[in-house]
Design goal:
Order of helices and strands: HHHHHHH
Number of domains: 2
CATH topology of the largest domain: Hypothetical Protein Yqey, Chain: A, domain1
CATH architecture of the largest domain: Orthogonal Bundle
Number of helices: 7
Strand content: under 5%
Length: 148
């Protein structure tokens, strides 16, 4: 399987050939984010870095959706949802709610966490889930489990 960067570039070409303007626009945004990282950091974008970049882009879209909905701008919120859907196609499969709960409980047990003061230790153990789970949802679950 090709790496994520190569896959995005190949999909840009196919979107150009098929005339899918909306898809092409989002793929170009992704490609530009990869290029920007390469220029800024002077390193090639590997799969791990690509997942971090895509996760960040997804988070930005979710925040924008919330703001546009709060401002009654459903047209812009819908555009952000469309972009988010395309971005998520390149991310690893997301964990389900049950899987996130199991991971959180395992991390709490491993860290011997009993109070909110242990949240940092637990979140440190859960960092590896970034890209496969919404870290805000993970944080919320940890708070819920550790609060009295």
């Amino acid at each position: 399987m090709p790496d994520l960067k190569s896959q995005v570039l190949a999909d840009v070409k196919s979107a150009m050939k098929s005339g899918e303007k909306e898809l092409l626009g989002v793929l170009r945004l992704i490609s530009a984010a990869f290029k920007q990282h390469e220029v800024d950091k002077r390193e090639d974008v590997g799969d791990e870095t690509a997942v971090v970049i895509l996760t960040r882009m997804g988070k930005q879209r979710r925040e924008s959706i919330a703001q546009f909905e709060a401002g009654n701008r459903d047209d812009l919120a819908q555009q952000e949802r469309t972009e988010l859907e395309i971005i998520q196609k390149y991310l690893p499969t997301q964990l389900s709610e049950d899987e996130m709960i199991k991971e959180v409980e395992a991390a709490i047990h491993e860290a011997n966490a009993a109070a909110m003061s242990d949240m940092g230790k637990v979140m440190g153990l859960l960092r590896s889930l970034a890209g496969r789970a919404d870290m805000l949802a993970i944080s919320t679950l940890v708070k819920k489990k550790l609060s009295p």
